[in-house]
Design goal:
alpha+beta; 12 strands; 2 domains; binds 2-acetamido-2-deoxy-beta-D-glucopyranose; 8-stranded antiparallel beta barrel
């Protein structure tokens, strides 16, 4: 039997709509945070107008997902300092961009020019290192379930090698996020390179707020896939302070 062409067209449109809708998962939508619930995506973590971080009161990780394929992430972690265990470094990272779901895997592609990282080693240096940050991520799988103990939605992400991340709990739905469009177009970010080095010297406020002293750096897919970041950490911890200001230019970073 031959279908009338109008019918065929309607059917293929319906199929296309279904295919698009299928690539997202309403269970993922919302703002998720690790247990401390103090590091959260949105304007409370990164201020894109002033182009600076706002240090949360506790370390943690947060991800937000929209129903139409956008994500945002906020990381605030302490890095153990073997030379001086009482004085860990702090690292803050922010990215946003688009995500897709492919055969159960979650693929995150950031807007490359928007991501930021702040590395602070207060005992070694007065100044923090503020750079661009651009790292795509693959989670091999994920699951959303109701946490029986807390009676709250819980997101388990599994890294590219299948190892689980710390569970995250639903904080807001719909999510709390900065605008999901590119915030720092390449042109203006590049122009900023010639301005001044003061952005590199920005102090990270540490007015007695908590960085856990016994924090053990966890091996994360993001870390192992980002040699630039290890370069920075290695440089900071080995104390080649005089090189810091040449770093960003040599790395091709314009911040
Ligand atoms: C997490 O913090 C947010 C904002 O302070 C609050 O609205 C929410 O109830 C908290 N969630 C949990 C599970 O504590
Ligand atoms: C889809 O995922 C399943 C389970 O992880 C895996 O066994 C299968 O090979 C994947 N299929 C494709 C096409 O990647
Ligand atoms: C951002 O990272 C991706 C890979 O993760 C790379 O392909 C891309 O060129 C990078 N973009 C910039 C502007 O650095």
């Amino acid at each position: 039997m031959r279908l009338p062409s109008a019918y065929a067209l309607t059917a293929s449109l319906a199929f296309a709509t279904l295919a698009v809708a299928d690539s997202y998962d309403s269970d993922l939508v919302g703002t998720w945070s690790t247990k401390s619930n103090k590091t959260l995506t949105g304007p409370g973590f990164y201020n894109p107008v002033a182009d600076e971080f706002i240090e949360p009161s506790r370390t943690g990780i947060s991800y937000s997902f929209t129903s139409d394929g956008y994500y945002e992430e906020a990381y605030y972690r302490a890095i153990a300092n073997p030379q001086n265990p009482a004085c860990p470094s702090g690292i803050m990272q922010w990215q946003h961009g688009t995500y897709t779901i492919d055969n159960g895997s979650l693929l995150l592609t950031p807007f490359a020019v928007d991501g930021r990282q702040l590395l602070s080693s207060p005992c070694e240096y007065d100044n923090s290192i503020y750079t661009r940050y651009n790292q795509s991520e693959t989670f091999k799988s994920y699951e959303v379930l109701t946490d029986a103990y807390h009676n709250i939605q819980r997101l388990n992400l599994f890294e590219f090698d299948g190892s689980p991340m710390n569970p995250m709990y639903l904080v807001y739905s719909p999510p709390e996020m900065l605008p999901t469009s590119t915030l720092n177009p390449t042109t203006s970010a590049t122009a900023g390179a010639t301005s001044t080095s003061s952005s590199k010297k920005r102090n990270m406020k540490r007015d007695g707020r908590e960085v856990p002293l016994n924090f053990k750096m966890q091996k994360k897919g993001m870390d192992t896939m980002n040699p630039d970041r290890w370069w920075w950490i290695g440089l900071t911890l080995t104390g080649v302070g005089g090189l810091l200001y040449f770093g960003p230019r040599r790395m091709g970073l314009s911040i």
